[in-house]
Design goal:
This is Tail fiber domain protein. Pfam families: Peptidase_S74. The protein is of the alpha+beta class and 475 residues long. Among the domains are: 76 residues, Beta Barrel (Elongation Factor Tu (Ef-tu), domain 3); 123 residues, Arc Repressor Mutant, subunit A (Orthogonal Bundle), CATH 1.10.10. It has eight helices and 22 strands. The longest helix has 30 residues. The radius of gyration is 54 Å and the shape is flat.
């Protein structure tokens, strides 16, 4: 670094003060730098107060001088340059050197320190888990120039010229499994796959479709040695015409000469009512049409798979009963149920479990348009309500459907209610149907509710009367 000599200085003998003129001490000097005074002597800079004032040690020895020449030797600047250079080096390489830590003292850099843990290629592959390990290797391309080795251990081995014929070798050691080879293609994001071609350990090649571009496949290889239907039939001993011979089932025919014998030959029965072990329909919307009484219409009833997971019956379905489950994916119960609209007593849907009548579903419709002969009705409602016996009970086993229950229930007994109000219950006490099945009595909740309404109205009249009498007594 050059010495700083700009301006002049004023120094006084035996004084440590240096006063500058035209100087810039702060930017060009540091405490500890050397100061050469007008007397030619060397002093140490001990303080820099401003660009024009500093202190030196020892005190100035020469003759006082008001405008003498001087020089500042940047003794500390040399150290600063070295420190700045070291700081730049640390800033650039410090983090990298810190990351290496103790790797510099390794003869063989381990994997944990970013190395291979080996001094040769073969050992490096083993240490990295690429040979005899469990890691996956993904590369742009790979080439084989030697024969496959080491395939006495379960796995897949590839090589070249293993048979000395310049051919590629693919060896599968199946271990204790089935073995074989599989090939298939997938789409760009691996969400769909094409047909699979397999070659089994036993030597069976399975392909979804075979396209032969050269000569036809010979009969000795399972083909027909022909590329036309007539030529194939001739080569197979079936004659040149498709109808010339009766083709047996073993050669792709039916073994029959008419409809019944053909159906019988392929296992469909001798009549036009086909017999199948199973039937699978494949279409965008597969369906089965039924033509009752040979109707010429498109169909009388249609069973169609018209959307995913849905089988729709276009027509009416008559069954012995409906078998339900406990929710969409629940298990099925042991009972069948039926619902029947009771036309003789509109407003009720009779419910049957298996063969037992268990009661009715009450539909609370009250539209005037479905009523006739509407008349106001009056009865001793309060007496009725007082006459109803309110009980608690548990369910009892009866017949094939009703089972014992432990829940305590509050309610009424149907035949007792019927004795008070014949319209408040249906059926008869101890009634059974023609087959001896229990015929359950049913409460009419609307009749019971209107009895309660009537009782409330009667009580309201009594309250008004009592209030009037009370008011009169108070007067």
């Amino acid at each position: 670094m050059p010495w700083y000599k700009a301006g002049t200085v004023s120094v006084t003998q035996n004084s440590n003060a240096v006063i500058g003129s035209g100087t810039a001490f702060i930017a060009n000097s540091r405490v500890g730098d050397g100061f050469r005074g007008p007397d030619g002597g060397w002093y140490e800079v001990t303080n820099i107060a401003s660009d024009t004032a500093m202190s030196i040690s020892p005190s100035y020895q020469g003759t006082s001088n008001g405008a003498g020449g001087y020089a500042l030797a940047p003794l500390q600047g040399y150290v600063k340059d070295s420190a700045d250079a070291l700081r730049a080096l640390v800033n650039q390489f410090g983090a990298k050197l810190a990351a290496l830590r103790s790797t510099g003292n390794y003869d063989i850099l381990p994997i944990a320190k970013g190395g291979t843990g080996a001094t040769d290629g073969a050992t490096a592959l083993v240490e990295l888990g690429l040979r005899g390990g469990a890691n996956d290797l993904l590369v742009k391309s790979i080439g084989f120039r030697g024969t496959p080795v080491g395939y006495n251990i379960q796995g897949l081995y590839m090589g070249w010229n293993g048979n000395g014929d310049g051919g590629a070798n693919y060896i599968c050691n199946r271990g204790g499994a089935g073995g074989g080879h599989s090939w298939w293609s997938v789409n760009s994001d691996n969400t769909a796959a094409g047909p699979v071609m397999t070659y089994s350990y036993a030597g069976v090649l399975s392909v979804a479709q075979l396209s032969v571009t050269a000569s036809p496949i010979a009969i000795s290889s399972g083909g027909t040695s022909a590329n036309t239907a007539a030529g194939a039939r001739t080569n197979l001993g079936l004659g040149s015409a498709a109808i010339e011979n009766t083709v047996p089932i073993t050669k792709g025919g039916t073994g029959g000469t008419d409809g019944p014998s053909a159906r019988s030959g392929i296992g469909l029965g001798t009549t036009d009512a086909a017999i199948f072990r199973a039937l699978e329909l494949t279409h965008t919307t597969p369906w089965i049409d039924f033509h009752f009484n040979n109707t010429a219409a498109d169909y009388d009833v249609r069973l169609i798979n018209d959307s995913a997971g849905t089988l729709t019956l276009d027509g009416r379905l008559a069954s012995k009963g409906t078998w339900c489950r406990t929710g969409l994916n629940g298990s099925r119960g042991a009972n069948i149920y039926n619902l029947n609209w009771n036309t003789s007593n509109s407003g009720y849907v009779d419910v049957y479990i298996d063969a037992s009548y268990v009661g009715a579903l009450t539909l609370l419709q009250s539209d005037y348009r479905v009523k006739r002969q509407v008349e106001e009705f009056s009865a001793p409602f309060l007496e009725r309500v007082n006459a109803y016996r309110i009980v608690t009970f548990k369910r009892a086993a009866y017949g094939e459907v009703f089972k014992d229950g432990e829940n305590l229930i509050q309610g009424l007994i149907a035949h007792e209610v019927q004795e008070v109000n014949p319209l408040a219950a249906t059926g008869k006490k101890d009634d059974v149907d023609a087959n001896g099945n229990i015929w359950i009595q049913q409460l009419d909740s609307i009749a019971l509710i209107t009895d309660a309404f009537g009782a409330i109205k009667e009580l309201s009249v009594q309250v008004k009367k009592l209030r009037a009498e009370l008011d009169a007594l108070k007067a």
